[in-house]
Design goal:
- GO terms for molecular function: AMPylase activity; ATP binding; magnesium ion binding; manganese ion binding.
- Keywords: ATP-binding, Magnesium, Manganese, Metal-binding, Nucleotide-binding, Nucleotidyltransferase, Transferase.
- By secondary structure, the protein is an alpha+beta fold.
- Among the domains are: about 170 residues, no CATH class; about 160 residues, no CATH class.
- It contains 18 helices and 11 strands.
- The chain has a 5-stranded antiparallel β-sheet. The protein has a two-stranded antiparallel ribbon with strand order 1-3.
- Strand 4 and strand 5 form a beta hairpin.
- The radius of gyration is 23 Å and the shape is globular.
- The two termini are about 35 Å apart.
- The N terminus is likely disordered.
- The structure holds adenosine-5'-triphosphate (ATP) and magnesium ion.
- Magnesium ion (MG) binds next to loops.
């Protein structure tokens, strides 16, 4: 049962509206009770004047929350974390992290809270977590807040990722707080409510290791096994099996990112999950022109997190996880290192398999090894011809149906495309299958910026239009042509900022 009065903060809900009676919402505290060393009990900050900006009704349904109730005053107070069900124990989670290669022993939720765990439709526990809910003991110099624009960026991009079939933490809702947030200028503040398989990060293991408590490390690993890799529990070496599970989940995830041109932008070890879900949509963006050297984040000066580096960085991060887990892998450190090295080598193999399978499917030749050289050559053509990745694959499906004009136009700057096209068409690619895996609508950078700028100014129309387009990414819809088009020339070089 939720505490709190019948305050009606939600947009469109007046005080006089009938409020759906309190629900029996159950928030478990599995993390807080099993791993008390990794959480500090904390409370979310009261809003100045709350206004619900967006709710993902699919996510709400997945965790058994009634979207209509979430829009009521009591629902919004749950989404802000200011009223939680009796028995819930919100905590700020502790974690460490390598940020741009430099180790910070104590990061943690500086502006976030784990409210507790909900139960998903399939019986799995899912975290309900907030971002922007005020300073915590981990805030260091930060203000504990988040601005409307970046929280809505997470909302729209994570939603697009889910629609693309890419494992991701999910945005349940964004609530404006009525509080001004100082970044370069004053911006409206917001809280993001997020649902995820968990918020265990590589950095969580680094933290447990850094305080040199092997018993805690083991409890953390057991918690991770129970929630994410339950089959590991039955294996002879459960912790090695856990590490293998994480390596495989991340290899599959990064391949999926690469296949749609997603650039995460801040792949620090605190932004990599144990579940294999994408987390932290800070400076992320999507490629338009295909170029592995692409970097969008303004603070990534060395290009560490460039598009093409993502698999290497993922493996580097997993090596940090393996280091943290060494005491669990073998009592003899040298032997533990050998076990870890073996498992880490599995990344390359798993990534290559996931990537080739995905690229074959994108080429309309699922399962066909013969398509592999054509896939490699196509990447070169995309790059030399400066072709928009997303439009490129959709144009190829047209070509597979007999209309080669759009592909010829797009690849006009790529020497060798004609010969490539002839060879590929000779394999009789399946155009319909291509259209089921190659999205037409992605959250293109210029559209995201346009929607966030409008929302920051109070107009949510463009955001909802964009969400509608990217939520059904494969099916062409009349009237949505601009959502399928690359950025206009005058949009210029795109830069994203970490000042979230
Ligand atoms: N405004 C802020 N106030 C306090 N701490 C902050 C603030 N912004 C970021 N931090 C902290 O800095 C670290 C790195 O932030 P980062 O942007 O990677 O994560 P985040 O966006 O806050 O959250 P998440 O990774 O959960 O999506 C985290 O420990 C985060 O809590
Ligand atoms: Mg983060």
């Amino acid at each position: 049962m939720l505490r709190g009065g019948e305050r009606a903060y939600a947009a469109g809900v007046s005080i006089a509206s009938p409020i759906v009676p309190d629900r029996d919402i159950r928030l478990d505290n599995r993390f807080a009770s099993e791993l008390p060393e990794l959480g500090v009990a904390w409370k979310a900050q009261e809003p100045v004047e709350a206004r619900l900006l967006a709710v993902d009704e699919d996510v709400a349904a997945e965790v058994g929350l009634d979207p209509a109730w979430l829009r009521t005053g009591d629902g919004v107070r749950l989404l802000l974390g200011v009223d939680v069900p009796a028995g819930a124990t919100p905590v700020a989670q502790a974690y460490s992290g390598h940020q741009f290669g430099r180790y910070s022993p104590r990061l943690g939720d500086g502006r976030a809270l784990l409210l507790g765990e909900l139960t998903g439709a399939d019986g799995r526990l899912l975290d309900l977590h907030l971002k922007g809910s005020g300073r915590t003991p981990f805030a260091r110099g930060g203000d504990g807040l988040a601005a409307v624009g970046p929280m809505l960026r997470e909302y729209v991009v994570s939603r697009a990722m889910a629609a693309l079939g890419i494992p991701t933490t999910r945005a349940l809702a964004v609530v404006a707080t009525g509080r001004a947030v100082r970044r370069e200028t004053l911006l409206p503040g917001a809280v993001l409510a997020r649902v995820a398989a968990s918020h265990l990060r590589v950095g969580s293991f680094q933290y447990a290791r850094s305080i040199d408590d092997t018993e805690l490390l083991r409890r953390l690993a057991d918690h991770a096994i129970a929630r994410h890799h339950p089959t590991a529990a039955g294996e002879a070496e459960p912790y090695a099996a856990l590490l293998r599970g994480v390596v495989e989940a991340q290899a599959s995830l990064i391949a999926k990112w690469m296949l749609v041109g997603f650039v995460h932008g801040v792949m620090n070890t605190d932004n990599m999950t144990i579940s294999g879900e994408t987390i932290d949509y800070g400076p992320c963006a999507f490629l338009d022109v295909y170029d592995p050297a692409t970097v969008y984040s303004s603070i990534d000066e060395g290009g560490r997190y460039a598009f093409g580096n993502q698999p290497v960085v993922a493996q580097w991060n997993l090596a940090r996880l393996a280091e943290a887990m060494l005491p669990l892998l073998h009592e003899d450190e040298q032997q533990a290192v050998t076990v870890a090295q073996d498992l880490l080598d599995g990344f390359r193999v798993a990534f290559a398999a996931a990537w080739s399978a995905g690229l074959r499917a994108k080429l309309g030749r699922a399962g066909d090894e013969q398509a592999d050289p054509l896939g490699d050559e196509l990447l070169t053509l995309l790059q030399t011809g400066r072709v928009d990745l997303t439009s490129g694959f959709r144009a190829l499906a047209h070509a597979a149906r007999g209309d080669t004009a759009p592909a010829r136009r797009l690849f006009s700057g790529a020497d060798g495309f004609e010969a490539w096209l002839t060879r590929w068409l000779a394999l009789a690619p399946d155009a319909d299958a291509m259209d089921r895996v190659n999205p037409l609508y992605i959250p293109r950078n210029h559209l995201v910026e346009e929607a966030l700028a409008a929302a920051t100014g109070g107009d949510l129309g463009p955001l909802h239009e964009l969400v509608a387009a990217v939520s059904a990414p494969y099916e062409p819809r009349p009237g949505r042509e601009r959502y399928a088009a690359p950025a206009p020339e005058d949009f210029g070089t795109y830069r994203t900022f970490c000042g979230t």
